């Protein structure tokens, strides 16, 4: 938490000190306004967590307690790693006690997300490997493929050897293809998955078209918008359009801030680009 706050202060300082070097875009102005309300968004997040903790305490059945614990995992998964892992583990223990196969697998998928995101790739693989896809209900198949893509992409990013990178990224792309095939065509998630696929094969214009179609959909959450805008920023950079990349990173950072997501990647890369422009 302290490291996160220190990094935010440094990055915000960079943004403030270099913004005077170049006229701010509309998105940069919106980002400034959003960041001034950081404490408000943080309180809203804490209030939601407090309500979900009350649900755990009030649960009269194991089923209700499990759902309340899972809601807390969901609250924390992009907010506090240690708490997300703790609640995912509690979900798993309770699901085994209930002898509920669907909830056991749901808990394992939650742990895969935490472990892969935290760089514990062997442990994430062990959890994923314990799940039998053939027995998964349709409600969990998207999660299974999403976690598989996350794991194998993380493995590829970690690998320094070209042979292993290609092996892992091929696995990730196969799961990505499966994810696309089971997703309703032209839905927001379908566009998201296709956009991500195009990014991996360096078809940046096609990726941008997919993400723009996705962002036009009414069911897109702020967290999904943050991730899509970050990918769009990288696509714009690949196409040598820094101005568009700055706007996309700014929108991504706004969505991260307003969902109290402990993720500063967009803010970090935005500060680097703004600083670079200030040196021109």
How would you describe this structure to a colleague?
The chain has helices spanning 2-19, 26-36, 38-58, 62-76, 81-98, 101-117, 121-129, 138-158, 162-181, 188-200, 204-215, 222-238, 242-258, 265-278. It is 80% helix and 0% strand. The model is unreliable at 1-7 and 16-23 (pLDDT under 50). With 280 residues, the protein is mainly alpha-helical. The two termini are 35 Å apart. It is globular and about 60 Å long. Helix 10 packs antiparallel against helix 11 (204-215).
Task: Describe the structure concisely.
The protein has 280 residues and is mainly alpha-helical.
Secondary-structure topology with pairs:
Elements: H1 2-19, H2 26-36, H3 38-58, H4 62-76, H5 81-98, H6 101-117, H7 121-129, H8 138-158, H9 162-181, H10 188-200, H11 204-215, H12 222-238, H13 242-258, H14 265-278
Quick tags:
globular, mainly alpha, 0% strand, 80% helix, disordered N terminus, 280 residues
Give the helix level as a range of percent. Answer: over 70%
Class by helix and strand content? mainly alpha
Largest sheet: none
Distance between the terminal alpha carbons, to the nearest Å? 35 Å
Return residue spans where pLDDT drops below 50 for at least 5 consecutive residues.
Answer: 1-7, 16-23
Please tell me what the overall shape is. globular
Integer average pLDDT: 90
């Amino acid at each position: 938490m302290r490291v996160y706050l220190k990094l935010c202060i440094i990055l915000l300082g960079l943004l403030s000190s270099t913004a005077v070097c170049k006229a701010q875009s509309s998105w940069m102005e919106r980002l400034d306004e959003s960041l001034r309300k950081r404490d408000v968004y943080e309180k809203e997040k804490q209030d939601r967590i407090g309500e979900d903790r009350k649900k755990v305490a009030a649960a009269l059945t194991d089923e209700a307690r499990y759902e309340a614990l899972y809601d807390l995992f969901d609250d924390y998964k992009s907010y506090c790693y240690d708490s997300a892992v703790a609640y995912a583990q509690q979900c798993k223990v309770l699901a085994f006690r209930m002898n509920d196969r669907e909830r056991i697998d749901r808990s394992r998928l939650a742990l895969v997300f935490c472990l892969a995101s935290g760089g514990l790739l062997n442990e994430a693989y062990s959890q994923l490997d314990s799940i039998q896809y053939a027995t998964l209900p349709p409600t969990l198949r998207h999660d299974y493929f999403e976690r598989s893509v996350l794991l194998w992409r993380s493995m590829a990013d970690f690998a320094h050897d070209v042979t292993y990178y290609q092996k892992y990224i091929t696995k990730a792309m196969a799961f990505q293809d499966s994810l696309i095939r089971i997703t309703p065509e032209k839905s927001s998630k379908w566009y998201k998955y296709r956009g991500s696929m195009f990014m991996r094969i360096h078809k940046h214009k096609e990726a941008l078209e997919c993400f723009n179609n996705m962002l036009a959909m009414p069911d897109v959450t702020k967290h999904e918008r943050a991730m899509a805008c970050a990918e769009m920023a990288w696509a714009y950079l690949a196409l040598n359009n820094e101005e568009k990349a700055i706007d996309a990173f700014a929108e991504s950072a706004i969505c991260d801030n307003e969902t109290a997501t402990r993720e500063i990647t967009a803010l970090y890369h935005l500060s680097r680009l703004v600083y670079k422009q200030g040196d021109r």
